[in-house]
Design goal:
There is one protein chain. The protein folds into two domains: about 10-180 and about 345-395, Rossmann fold, CATH 3.40.50; about 185-340, Rossmann fold (3-Layer(aba) Sandwich). Helix content is about 45%, strand content about 15%. The chain contains 17 helices and 15 strands. The radius of gyration is 22 Å and the shape is globular. The mean pLDDT is about 95.
Length: about 425
């Protein structure tokens, strides 16, 4: 079959979810109308590994309207919304291979399935599909690709530095209209949403430890403070650590923060930033959550090795009893908490990211054969267009420079 999902019977509910998302994605709908008129993706085959959510559905439907054929797999074993997957199959004819609760083998098998359609364009979130292609496929006619997230861009830059990258890739994550909003504002809200849904604990008054002060960490720290938490930042970069201090947060190493925190959220893209040694220092009742793309930031394997007992308390909330008798609570088995235990980013912020995705795909097609095999940032004209469309959808007008002002900005002779 051209799909493998949990239950096609969920399609009607998924259709309503997609309609709800598209109501809040005016920029992407505007892009859809443009691409549909141009049919600029006609005959293009796209294989995409993305979180299968109602917002992703809006993007996929946009690509289809532009003429593309799409095969879609999930970019996290726990992030697929099964009703949305069913709606895409039943009502839109999208080849979907994804369901919530995949094991690791199923996760990679689904990626293999979508590559059977011999894609021309690769869309990825996390870099797993790009890596799989580079490791095992040499016969695909790929024009180029896109990458949605920080983790994936880091992997692709490593491929570029090692001179193994096989096709041009646009780092959608690096667009201003992506990382300033999706990473910071979207994850800032959705990660806390996942923590609250899985625990129903009060944030106010608690000591929250945010590990990493990149754009995701900034957003989480800011919103934790806004909800009344006392926030500690753990950061290895002196530049980001200094920024966190100047933003009013306490900064210290994890070895000290482990003894103080009550809620821990990782957002680094690195491995074992909360180790089993750190966990053994934690207070009774500490909550552990990960907001990074992969489930490597918390040493879950080490935690399971030292735990005297483990029991599930409620969905996505597992209790681990440590050798000293203290209990710690791991959310979503250390996976991406905002998508595993909640619904991911609100549609309004994904409107920006996915408008960038759609326009970047068109850019790759229009510039076929002109781009080197390396990682590119989103062209500035696309970034600014997305911002303009978003403002337009919000009913906001901005200033327009006069010709005199434009000329002034281009010259160097005027002085005081």
């Amino acid at each position: 079959m051209d799909y493998n999902i949990k239950d096609i019977g969920l399609a009607e509910q998924g259709k309503k979810q997609i309609e709800w998302a598209e109501m809040h994605m005016p920029a992407l709908i505007n892009v859809r109308q443009e691409l549909s008129q141009r049919k600029s993706l006609k005959g293009i085959r796209i294989s995409a590994v993305l979180h299968v959510t109602k917002e992703t559905a809006a993007l996929v439907r946009t690509l289809k309207e532009a003429g593309a054929e799409i095969a879609l797999a999930g970019s996290n074993p726990l992030s697929t919304q099964d009703d949305v997957a069913a709606a895409l199959v039943k009502y839109d004819g999208i080849k979907v291979f994804a369901w919530k609760g995949e094991n690791d083998t199923e996760y990679y098998n689904n990626m293999t399935e979508i590559l059977k359609y011999e894609p021309n364009i690769i869309m990825d979130d996390g870099g797993d599909l790009h890596a799989l292609i580079h490791e095992k496929y040499s016969n695909l006619n790929i024009i180029g690709g896109t990458e949605e997230t920080t983790t994936g861009v880091i992997r692709l830059k490593a491929m570029e530095e090692n001179k193994v990258i096989k096709y041009p890739v646009i780092a959608v994550n690096n667009a201003f209209t992506k990382y300033l909003f999706d990473n910071r504002i979207g994850t800032g809200q959705s990660a806390i949403d996942g923590i609250i849904r899985s625990t129903n604990i009060l944030i106010a008054g608690k000591v929250a430890v945010v590990v990493g002060y990149g754009w995701v960490g900034r957003g989480i720290a800011l919103r934790m403070r806004g909800m009344g938490a006392r926030v500690i930042v753990v950061e290895a970069s002196p530049l980001r650590a200094l920024e966190a201090v100047m933003d009013g947060f306490d900064v210290m190493p994890m070895s000290k923060a482990a003894e103080l925190g009550e809620i821990f959220v990782t957002a680094t893209g690195n491995i074992n930033v909360i180790s089993k040694e750190h966990i053994q220092k934690m207070k009774n009742g500490a909550v552990l959550a990960n907001a990074g793309h992969f489930n490597v930031e918390i040493d879950v394997k080490g935690l399971k090795e030292i735990a005297k007992s483990v029991r599930n308390i409620r969905p996505f909330l597992d209790e681990y009893t440590l050798p000293n008798g203290n209990k710690v609570y791991l959310l979503a088995d250390g996976r991406l908490v905002n998508l595993a235990a909640a619904e991911g980013h609100p549609s309004e912020v994904m409107d920006l990211s996915f408008s960038n995705q759609a326009l970047s795909v068109e850019y790759l097609i229009n510039n076929q054969g002109k781009l080197e095999k390396k990682v590119y940032n989103v062209p500035q004209e696309i970034d600014e267009k997305v911002a303009f469309l978003k403002l337009k959808g919000m009913g906001i007008e901005i200033e327009t420079m006069t010709e005199e002002q434009k000329d002034y900005m281009k010259q160097w002779k005027y002085g005081t």
